[in-house]
Amino acid sequence: MSQDGGQVRRAVRRRHHACTCFVTTMEVRPTLERQRDDAPAKGQVAREQILDGLLARLDEQAG
């Protein structure tokens, strides 16, 4: 049984956000903010919290 494109993207996103070795840069911050802002509308509280943490760490590293 194959997954549609949306299911594949969601599966990849789950693995991506759960990765214990995640590296990003400030250039990606706008994308992370959009994803974080989108999460509550979809009832994705855990995703919102993960993205909040990533954004906070980016700010700490930049500061």
Strand and helix map with partners:
Layout: H1 5-18, H2 29-38, H3 45-62
Helix pairs in contact: 2-3
How is this structure best described in words?
Helices cover 67% and strands 0% of the residues. It is mainly alpha-helical and 63 residues long. It is globular, with a radius of gyration of 13 Å.
Structure described in brief:
The chain is mainly alpha-helical and 63 residues long.
Largest sheet: none
Oligomeric composition of the shown chains: single chain
Helix content: 55-70%
Q: Strand-and-helix sequence, N→C?
A: HHH
Tally of discrete structural domains: 1
* Count of helix runs: 3
Number of strands: 0
- Determine the strand fraction and express it as a percent band: under 5%
Radius of gyration: 13 Å
General shape: globular
Overall SS class: mainly alpha
Low-confidence stretches: none
List the keywords:
63 residues; mainly alpha; globular
